[in-house]
Amino acid sequence: MPPAARTASNPSWSPEENDVSIVPQAGAIAVRTDGPEPLFLVVTAKKNPRAWIFPKGHIEPGETLEEAALRELHEEAGVDGSLLHSVGSSRFLSGDEQVDVTYFLIQAHDEGRQSEGRQQQWLPAAAARERLSFDDAKDLLELARTILNAR
After folding, report:
1. What secondary structure does DSSP assign to 28-87, as a single string?
2. Is the pTM of this model over 0.90?
3. Do residues 53 and 133 make contact, with C-beta atoms less than 8 angstroms apart?
4. 97-108 and 22-32 as β-strands: parallel, antiparallel, unpaired?
5. Which of 6, 41, 123, 134 is geometrically suited to a Cys-Cys bond with 128, CB 3.0 to 4.6 A?
6. For residues 114 and 34, which has the higher predicted lDDT (pLDDT)?
7. Higher pLDDT, 116 or 109
8. How far is CA 32 from CA 9, 80, 148, in A?
9. Is 113 exposed, middle or buried (CB count within 10 Å of its CB: 0-12, 13-18, 19+)?
10. Structural domains in the chain?
């Protein structure tokens, strides 16, 4: 049985447990706080349009994780924002690569626009949790809510 992935709920996973190459990525948990309750952005995945995720992607040479998260948010959802806090990470297998995504909570400055053929929705936390397709994303959403509520 392969080792468990490092997620918000399992932070002890380490690369020594697996010989697969690790691909770092950055992701954005975007939030709008301009209404009666916070709204979180979810988008459809590029590879599987039925899966709902947070925007994420590769890191350009010379780019920090934070810069990559902001860029990916803009590219995938047309949303500009400001970095609030690091949230956590998620690790999963994609083909023959282990992908390690570091997520950041980002205050959205606008609603954005549909981009890259993806659907997007701004949802209250409970609805976003229901819409998200993966348990690790749901765990990260709960961490993001905790961080936001502590601000």
Report:
1. EEEEE-SSSS-EEEEEE-SS-TT-EE--EEE--TT--HHHHHHHHHHHHH---EEEEEEE
2. no
3. yes
4. parallel
5. 123
6. 34
7. 109
8. 25, 11, 11
9. exposed
10. 21-150 (3.90.79.10)
How far is the C-alpha of 35 from the C-alpha of 54, rounded, in Å?
A: 21
Supply φ then ψ for residue 133, to 5 degrees: -85, -20
Of residues 132 and 151, more confidence is placed in: 132
The token duo for 116 is: 């890259």
Amino acid identity, position 27: G
**Encoded amino acid at 32, one letter:** R
Which phi and psi angles does 89 have, rounded to 5°? -140, 165
Burial of 70: CB neighbours in 10 Å, binned 0-12, 13-18, 19+: buried
